[in-house]
Amino acid sequence: FIRQYHVETRRPGIETRLSAWARDPVLTEEELAYGARVAWRNSTRCIGRLPWAALQVRDRRYVTQPDEIFTELIEHLRMAYAGGKIRPVISVFGPGVRIVNDQLLRYAGYVQADGTVIGDPQNVALTQYLQKLGWAGGKGTSFDLLPVAIQSDTGRTELFTLPQDVTQEVLITHPDCPAIGDLGLRWPALPVISNMTLSVAGQHMTCAPFNGWYLQTEIAARNLADEHRYNMLPAVAQALGLDTSRRRSLWQDRALVELNVAVLHSFDQAGVRISDHHAVTRQFERFAAEEARAGRRVRGRWSWLIPPLSPATTPVWSRQYLDQEITPNFVRQTPAWT
Amino acid sequence: FIRQYHVETRRPGIETRLSAWARDPVLTEEELAYGARVAWRNSTRCIGRLPWAALQVRDRRYVTQPDEIFTELIEHLRMAYAGGKIRPVISVFGPGVRIVNDQLLRYAGYVQADGTVIGDPQNVALTQYLQKLGWAGGKGTSFDLLPVAIQSDTGRTELFTLPQDVTQEVLITHPDCPAIGDLGLRWPALPVISNMTLSVAGQHMTCAPFNGWYLQTEIAARNLADEHRYNMLPAVAQALGLDTSRRRSLWQDRALVELNVAVLHSFDQAGVRISDHHAVTRQFERFAAEEARAGRRVRGRWSWLIPPLSPATTPVWSRQYLDQEITPNFVRQTPAWT
Ligand code: HEM
Ligand code: HEM
A163-167 long-range contacts, Cβ below 8 Å, gap at least 24? Predict the structure, then answer.
């Protein structure tokens, strides 16, 4: 990577730097920043890579204490939210620590006696793990934000509750159908992935939370729609007055589109940045063209890049990408509870 | 394959048959029928494989003359259409012949002086090839059915026009929006793929047209919708009175759903069998379960199996399949004009 950094940025002094690296393999702040940006550029499953070079990198490798990390996370959230004009940011913390939560802003999933789940079924295991660590549980609504669990290099895990002024959420309403607003749906403004390892030049940074802004399909075509998530399509269809007796009437497809309209409308009204699948796939075309111009193969996993709504209307549908990982990159961690 | 046939159908006499085959490798009628069914079962890109064992196989290997083939094609279309209760049928013709058309029922694509296309842009090359062979062209509408070109073992190609009583088409109307009906859209009732080679036991049958029934997404989410096909989403959106000035209003997504509703409605009204993507993907789950029960790996190409409309609402979205071809199978031919 050190070599790549010098070549791509046309920085001189490559040989001197390489021999220094051989003695003391510590990334400079600039190298780390470039490494994080290239890690994003190399993320095969990410459709939002066009602005990879604009990623803001907070070098906090000297921070290793859970409480200090937590203070820095609050600062990260403030800087990233930026009053709704969301900026892509990554904070890189010291070695040996990790965040248990897969994202900083996640809703609890409470299993009921009858086996059903209140909240987000995807977060049931995380919720139970946090409860074992001492979390008393939230109010019991469908949208209780979970505390953040930070594991220090001693193996001890501490829980922290984010202050309300950095956990902005958007209430979901529909421009023409008030009954959809009455469902009381909401979603966090910021997607902050907090459980992936940033891997640069053989260094593995296990605590390096990063955020972009949402693509509406993530919220409206998966998180709120999937049967094994919030499963809201039947309720949305009812709000729209659709006949849900036969799948062949395409009530699911109609409800899905209107839920996507609602999420885009709500974020726009709230002044919170969000992409739509038509725009982001066209931006990805530009990214692919720029990569080709730079002489690099465009890596991508087609099955993750196509949107789950009307995919064949987007330019990504008819493309092929090289599905191959290279470093720098972001690598998944095994959950703390397994 | 001969061995597989005996094992799967529990037919005795396998050793006798194998030594006979070594001397004279000609498939019996039963072997051919089973081979064609297994070729369907092995079609990784086909979501409609559940009824593979019910494929009706017409053994016409003794037919090799274009005019006789044409007569048999008419018979095939009649038997397959069955008054709307479409049945999956394959006709297997003699060696050395092929059909130039990729499907028996295709619309012409006429290139205009300004470069635009009247009809189906996908069939421009086929249309020009047929014109070179002597076709005078049709009326010049967007939906002129093309003649069928059959190439004999001498290399000569003859043109034939199918009689109207075997080229059923369905006029597309919408249950609630008459303006969509006013667009004058239509589509053939039957998908008859006519340019794939049936490969069984090392035998390559180049003329073996087969049909199933349509899945509505093929017509409504691709053929009529794609920008490089009939590109009807803007017109459908206008018929629906949608604001098409910003993609972010999701007018394409809304028009797409309503076009799918219209196609299902129209086929249902006309009494012509058609699948919807919710039902066919659930049938495919049953197919996969049956295959697993029979001890066979489920082969599939995920990118072809997911529907282009609301794919994440179907069970196929979260599955993985072995993307690997085995014989018996259907293999693509290079077009006659290349
Ligand atoms: C700027 C706006 C961004 C948008 C619109 C965007 C969009 C997306 C989407 C839609 C996914 C698929 C998520 C899923 O289906 O679960 C994704 C995945 C991913 N993105 Fe981005 N992204 C953005 C920024 C970023 C940034 C800043 C980074 C890192 C610096 C990043 C790295 C990744 C990675 C590593 C994945 C794969 C996650 C996984 O495996 O679960 N993205 N992105
Ligand atoms: C019975 C109803 C059937 C349905 C609903 C169905 C559905 C489909 C669909 C949706 C596709 C993808 C088409 C595309 O995107 O271009 C497909 C492909 C395919 N199907 Fe089926 N199918 C049916 C019957 C059959 C039969 C009877 C056969 C053969 C005996 C067959 C063999 C194939 C093959 C070989 C492909 C790949 C075609 C290619 O590569 O272009 N299908 N099917």
Answer: A163/A74, A166/A74, A166/A77, A166/A78, A166/A81, A167/A77, A167/A105
Please state, in angstroms and rounded to a whole number, the distance separating the CA atoms of residues A262 and A257.
9
- Please choose, from the candidates A242, A285, A338, the residue with its C-alpha nearest in 3D space to the C-alpha of residue A48: A285
Q: What is the pLDDT of residue B260?
A: 98
Peptide bond into B163 cis (omega under 30): no
Tell me the C-alpha to C-alpha distance, in Å, between residue B223 and each of A313, B177, B260, B263: 12, 21, 11, 12
Tokens, residue A328:
């720098």
What count of residues does chain A have? 338
In sequence order, which residues have a C-beta less than 8 Å from that of residue A198 and are 6 or more positions away?
Answer: A35, A36, A39, A90, A92, A204, A205, A208, A210, A328, A330
Residue type, A289: A
| B33 Cβ closer than 6 Å to some ligand 2 atom | no
In degrees rounded to 5, what are phi and psi of residue A123?
Answer: -105, 20
Band (B181; pLDDT cuts 50, 70, 90): very high
B269 contact residues in A (CB cutoff 8 A): none
**Which pLDDT tens digit goes with each residue over A137-159?**
999 999 999 999 999 999 899 99
End-to-end CA, chain A = 32
Cis peptide before A328 (omega within 30 of 0): yes
d(CA B161, CA A337) in angstroms, rounded, equals 68
Map tokens 């393999």 to a residue: A25
Q: What ipTM does the predicted assembly reach? A: 0.97
Evaluate: CB of A281 within 6 angstroms of ligand 1: no
**What was the pLDDT predicted at A10?**
95
Whether residues A313 and B233 touch (CB distance < 8 A) is answered with: yes
Looking at ligand 1, which residue's alpha carbon is closest to its atom 12?
A46
- Boundaries of every domain in chain A: 2-106+145-189+197-297
- H/E element holding B98? strand B98-99
Q: What is chain A's pLDDT, residue by residue, as a tens digit (338 residues)?
A: 999 999 999 999 999 999 999 999 999 999 999 999 999 999 999 999 999 999 999 999 999 999 999 999 999 999 999 999 999 999 999 999 999 999 999 999 999 999 999 999 999 999 999 999 999 999 999 999 999 999 999 989 999 999 999 999 999 999 999 999 999 999 999 999 999 999 999 999 999 999 999 999 999 999 999 999 999 999 999 999 999 999 999 999 999 999 999 999 999 999 999 999 999 999 999 999 999 999 999 999 999 999 999 999 999 999 999 999 999 999 999 999 98
Contact B233 A317 (CB under 8 A): no
Total beta-carbon pairs less than 8 A apart between chain A and chain B? 80
Residue B148 has a CB neighbour count (10 Å cut-off) of: 26
Question: CB distance from A221 to chain B under 8 Å?
Answer: yes
Q: Among B309, B314, B320, which would you mutate to test the A interface (most chain A Cβ atoms within 10 Å of its Cβ)?
A: B309
pLDDT at A286: 98
Annotated catalytic, A218?
A: yes
Return the DSSP state at A59.
E
Nearest to residue A165, comparing CAs of A230, A81, A249? A81
Burial group, residue A85, by CB count within 10 angstroms (0-12, 13-18, 19+) = exposed
